[in-house]
Amino acid sequence: MNSQIFSPSYPESRMRRLRKGDFILRMLTESNLSTNNLIFPLFIVEGNGVKEEVSSMPGIYVYSIDEILYVAEKCIDLGIPTIALFPVIDSTLKTNNGIESINANGLIPRTVIEIKKRFPELGIMTDIALDPYTIHGQDGILDDSGYVLNDETIEMLTKQSLLHASAGVDIVAPSDMMDGRIGIIRQKLESNEYKNTIIMAYSAKYSSAFYGPFRDAIRSSNNLKKGNKNSYQINPSNINEAIREAAADITEGADMLIVKPGIPYLDVLTKIKEKFRVPTFAYQVSGEYSMIKAASLNGWIRNDEIILESLICFRRAGADGILTYFALEAAELLRKNN
Ligand code: PBG
């Protein structure tokens, strides 16, 4: 495109004319953020009356089931359509193969049932992966050399997906990055009458240090120790793989995709959205939350403005929505600003 045609030079063109005041700024706003775009990730633990702050995520708590019901109600009040549940599993229940992940009476199925009983209209999404349940903190089952076994892991993930679907989950979100898992999970959901269970695939999940505070929250940091997830999550320097992962997941039956982490990976988000045009979500992950929170608690940046700015950037880059620990705060700000 020849930019001369569209942009005469100064003084015929003064870009600042269109930034002259609030009325014109509002008229020309290209991207919008609404509470409809937000998914709130929540940490859940056994017990009663538990509301414990995650030390590396000020303002974010681990809740017991009774306490999470208040949060669920708040989400509904604020217009947040969906929550994403992550379990904090007691260390005595962690094993080599993460078998607790398919316990029908486990923490996640019980939480889902309780929330759905009170608030059937609230969308619930659950993570499909083994890391909260394994003693080594990896997302799958290991062989003797410590390598994560693909196909054996998928068997467990498929059972986990069916269990969550039977508990009433609306969206299952495999975050494990095993090859071929979406196809097998979709096939099993279909043949078990869970035809409308949505699959939101973590297609472009990078092997990222931005997940640190999340691993503290679900208490898997001590399990993972110095280990990493490089044999299944994507190398941060690569984008071709992310596009191939997205293509594979869509072909296998994913309804929606996630790109993760968020802000540092907006280029990946934009590429995938432009290429496939399927609902594509960004995950503003724990480390991103902690960096913003730490700086704003120190008075180094303006909390409210940074939250809204970071979220609108996801929308501008093409995200249909954002999983963000700021969901409650952002929804309150959006309500106040309207
Ligand atoms: C694990 C999982 C992780 C996150 C969501 N699901 C961490 C990991 O892969 O180690 C990270 C979320 C966050 O950092 O906020 N299946």
UniProtKB/TrEMBL annotation:
Active site: K205, K260
Pfam family, one: ALAD
Pathway participation: Porphyrin-containing compound metabolism; protoporphyrin-IX biosynthesis; coproporphyrinogen-III from 5-aminolevulinate: step 1/4
Keywords assigned by UniProt, alphabetized: Heme biosynthesis, Lyase, Magnesium, Metal-binding, Porphyrin biosynthesis
EC numbers on record: 4.2.1.24
Molecular function GO terms recorded: porphobilinogen synthase activity; zinc ion binding
UniProt subunit comment: Homooctamer.
Family: Belongs to the ALAD family.
Record's GO cellular component terms: cytosol
NCBIfam families (alphabetical): PRK09283.1
Record protein name field: Delta-aminolevulinic acid dehydratase
Residue positions binding Mg(2+): E245
Catalyzed reaction equations: 2 5-aminolevulinate = porphobilinogen + 2 H2O + H(+)
Organism expressing this protein natively: Candidatus Kinetoplastidibacterium blastocrithidiae TCC012E
GO biological-process terms attached to the record: protoporphyrinogen IX biosynthetic process
